[in-house]
User: Fold this.
Amino acid sequence: MNFIYCKNFLNLASDNTKLPHLMADLKKTNHGTKSNLRTIKGPNDFVPGITGKIVPQAIPVEEVVLGAVMIDINAMSAVLDMLTPEVFYNQNHGKIFASMMRIFNKSQPIDLLTVHEELKKSGELDEVGGPAYLAELTSKVGSSANVEHHARILVQKYIQRELIHVSNQIIKDSYEDVKDVFDILDDAEQNLYRITDNNLNNGPQSFTSMASQVRKRMEEMATKPDGLTGVPTGFRSLDRITSGWQPSDLIIIAARPSVGKTALVLSMAVNAAKHDFPVAIFSLEMSTLQMAQRIISMEAEISNTALRDGKLNDEELRRFHHTLQTESDLKIFVDDTPAINIFELRAKCRRLKMQHDIKLIVIDYLQLISAAGESSGGGNRTQEVSVISRALKGLAKELNVPVIALSQLSRATETRQDKRPQLSDLRESGSIEQDADIVGFIYRPDYYHLNKDEAAQMAETDAELLIQKHRNGALGTIKMRFIKEYAKYQDPGDVDFFGNFSSPTGKSSDTYDSGTVMITRSSRANNSDDFTDIIM
Assistant:
């Protein structure tokens, strides 16, 4: 059928008086024959050969929901978490619902009169149909008993419309061939995740809504004796500064090679998993088997060398089996894809979030991630690392989980008399410091072969975590105990495998030391998407 007739048909379909004239015109064309035409009885009675499509919508349901909210004082509370003005296909219905939200935020009752006054005050009353239409909405519903079910129908229609929009954009980008294929994949994955996650409230929020969230968070904190609002680290001094790793934060932990970056984040990951926080670890240096051995070595307090060689004495064998038995349900997921690029990383994190609701992401380590496509920085590694650090911050905000990324330091610390790392020592890019919410440096005096007097001052702690950037809190120096034999970090005073409190010198103690803190105010080589779920 000629395009102009298709267009005219769709434009005139809402007017039954014009349909006969349109049919007469169609029969005069070579494309309109009796074999593919039938009598049109109404605007929705399409003829074969005309591909008329209607956007997913449910106008009658929208009317019922709006009417239910105006006749039941509790209906708004039932649907507010599901609906926004954008969910309504009819724009006038969206304006009515927006007025209801404004009334609700003022803690005033929502009914026919208050909605009428609110729309009149905003100058939208005539646009939405006037008082008569509002009264008509209330007359179309007898009870609000099914308002939640009706709201879900509207959400489903909205999601369908969003899927159509996203799919059309993917098709458009793919045909134009002007956008890098990795960028197209990443955009598609991000948009589909947003829809799948049913994240309908990501738009601008009023201060009233934000203040309500702050109040709710304060009330939640008051009920928690430990004051933790995020993912626990297992180090009490660190948790006092951060209140746990907070959602949407990018945390950078940096040190020179072989200082123990992986050991520290593994200790934190295991501690988080023990508190029922699922953890995803991207290991770009070690295989899943090596990672599992490191975790078992820490938890069972068995030398990693003995564990690797399989030469365990009776006591070590007992601790090994005990660890496997007691910690078999830890939700730690490890991906060891080599040379993973930022697009693959984000895609896998989104799938892990949907499948396992991960609460913490660990990346070992940042400089081993590669960029791809137009985001590669044109071969400039400094620009590439900048792109990666910004992407990791975006990932943390998108999934609303803390992301811990390990980072290497430059050799500048080797040339200074004071070996404690500084922010300027971060390797390859100053944007790491800029994008991170928290930057911590690991400092161990024995690594730098300090003299005996200086080493003696550190004997009680063995290691320090220097928090030198904290966007939303205090800076500080966290004292830690490092056990070389097991590559394990502990809070001073933590219990050992046998249940004894350990003093900083390694001897058992009957007293509990809560720790010390000094606070300063101021490639596609692996195409599989499967993760290794470490089972102890």
User: Anything to note?
Assistant: Residues 1-19, 26-50, 498-528 have pLDDT under 50 and may be disordered. Residues 92 and 129 are 8 Å apart (CA to CA).
